[in-house]
From TrEMBL, chains A, B, C, D:
UniProt keyword Hydrolase, yes or no: yes
Organism of this sequence: Hydrogenophaga electricum
Superkingdom: Bacteria
Keyword Hydrolase on entry: yes
SUPFAM superfamilies: Isochorismatase-like hydrolases
Pfam families: Isochorismatase
UniProt domain Isochorismatase-like: residue ranges: 26-217
Gene3D superfamilies, alphabetized: Isochorismatase-like
Protein name: Isochorismatase-like domain-containing protein
Length: 224, 224, 224, 224
């Protein structure tokens, strides 16, 4: 089975990671594939344009996941419309720090506001999918009920796709690891700030947190 | 005030980050500076040799922090001696994944076992310091009482030093950010797996999580 | 100031509990005042008929709270419509245990299902109020983001009203206490399973967790 | 099988609660059986004298539990010696509220201080038992790593014995329930503030949280 270790392909015996590979106890977690990151518009409040490339491939992967009877969980940031979670409370750090890198973000104040178009999903979300819609900062796990949900469903392995490999995806992989889930990050279905940080984040995952794989390889591996 | 943004120095106005800079509500969090990472011996169970270089500088920085009346919190991994937290339960991912990168880690089974010499502090820990001694995986926050402690003491800013910039330090910075602490990571007082991942982790902090600073600069800034 | 200690009125000096009484850092938390508990209908899925008596008094109290510029937080149980949080996962204990006491609960399976009429608020919820709508079991705090919200808003005292004094209210008071909020439960604005358990739960609050007060007395006390 | 529902014995079919009764996924949690509650001395910092009666019976029960190869977890309050968790931070509510009921508690400031004799176990703690020694307030679960431990060991049912039925035991039963553990409280091996609150707390458990049983009955039931 091919995994990626520190940005290099590596053939490993499937048995070495057998506990990562049981479809019956696996869920796919798709992070922040919403209009507020992905819309191609100057007023996109928190642009992650590189992730647009993976919208169609993620949809295709999820279809295969559902066809196997496995759950897809969509997680996204939504903030209370009055600003209590952020601008009118303790503001999220990225508002000032990311702006040091990319310059002012014109419409950042509209980011993730409940009820706004910016919270609409861009990827396909079907009725049987599970949704977690109160991510408030970077992690899919805190302060949401994702862990409660996964645990209640007997999930032991989480497979991540979606947005900002070096931010929300990496953070969620850390959290999943700390909660003793087996972690897989899909190299072809995540996108980071840029190539450099994306690659570095995947290297960190591969060293400390779990497996970095291509989605096609994982599908083959699940077939057994 | 000089900060580092994506590995480059940047001069910013102190007022831009005034809420990060109040010594009265700041604690320094020192991560995993224990013998199990730092001892120069072939049976060191989880070697992080690069962090040996910062033992003396961290001690010197902590002395100045204490002299200002500010708290130093030492956090370290300790696992129940019977293995219930790890080897005899759901084993930590790094045992298999990090070994893909560095090869077999001969004495890894002894890592962090309660009561063993591997849990001894290498940096100076004084009676007035605070200690969190049940980190079980990578984060200083989960499943420990660090948040309970900081909150009870009215802490709003956390300053990180210590070990594995791209692992436990980065994970703890993510968690601190999600709990709405203001985050500062000290570039000269943390060490990562290697130069590349260390630099990338600091870049991620600087973009998404908070400030990357040199310790000397922070001391000057605190002086006001 | 009059408080209730183990079901008896007691006059105490306001200064003894001064840290409980600052309106500027206080929020009112109203628990589970929804149709699924309160509707007077044979298919009410989880009947708490005694709490119907406090709907109007709670609304009146909240109006005064808002008039002071203080926040009202409405928390309620909502379960994913597919049953993943409960019936199709690990079912909530009360389904079998409460039925030992009251007999079969005919429509219990419909309890709290997202999108159903059973989740509609019965008390007045205004746009400026805060809502927490993913309570999954008994506590208002886990696995919701209530603590994240309160903390972000600098809240230090929580005042509880609403339903099942000896269940969700008591559980939430325990959790608030463990997170070091100052706790006040409003004796006239909560209702329990029956008089006996309601009184016992208030006695427990008064001994271990915080203040039991009448809402009129609290309003007077806030006036200072 | 005999359970207690709202203080009355009830015969129920074992199959109704089959998921509560698998010894292979059950742990016994013993709460706060330490000298600071149990010592018969005027300077006992937080007296719970009624619980002295269950020391020997708890020890006897634990011996049978261990003989079955099942884990016993001892949880107790320990506070950092400098007072950061309590008196020199946000003080625990009970210090003022419980004193309204029983009058001044002379040596309360010494309660649970790390390194003091008050934290010594009174019940038998064997090397193979698991220990959780950083309970800070009332719950055995927060901010400790009890959930991390139980989950890592595949535990699904928790059986409680120990001290203050209407306080730490009840709070821990609520938390266990919210985390979807199956909960059993042993009626003969817990003690509350007084008969009235003890009985009421057990009634609450029996209605909302799980099973109230006698320890002898549970042992018989486990035999199958």
């Amino acid at each position: 089975m091919k995994i990626w270790v520190y940005d290099q392909p590596r053939e490993v015996a499937r048995e070495t990671f057998a506990d990562y590979l049981d479809p019956a106890t696996t869920a796919v977690i798709s992070i922040d594939m919403h209009r507020g990151h992905l819309e191609d518009s100057p007023d996109c409040p928190c642009p992650a344009p590189r992730a647009r490339d993976v919208v169609a491939p993620i949809d295709a992967f999820h279809r295969q996941v559902r066809a196997r009877g496995m759950p897809v969980v969509h997680v996204k940031s939504v903030l209370r419309p009055g600003g209590e979670d952020d601008l009118r409370g303790i503001p999220a750090a990225w508002r000032r720090t990311f702006a040091q890198h990319v310059g002012p973000i014109p419409n950042a104040d509209a980011h993730a506001l409940e009820g706004s178009r910016w919270t609409e999903w861009v990827t396909e979300v079907l009725p049987q999918d599970w949704r977690v819609e109160n991510k408030r900062r970077l992690s899919a796990f805190y302060p949401t009920d994702l862990d409660f949900l996964l645990r209640n469903q007997g999930i032991r392995t989480v497979v991540f796709d979606g947005g900002f490999t070096d931010c929300c995806v990496l953070n969620s992989a850390f959290d999943a690891n700390n909660h003793n889930y087996r972690v897989i990050v899909l190299r072809d279905l995540v996108r980071g700030t840029d190539d450099h940080l994306e690659s570095a984040a995947l290297s960190m995952v591969s060293l400390h947190l779990g497996l970095v794989m291509d989605s096609a390889e994982l599908l083959v591996t699940w077939r057994g």
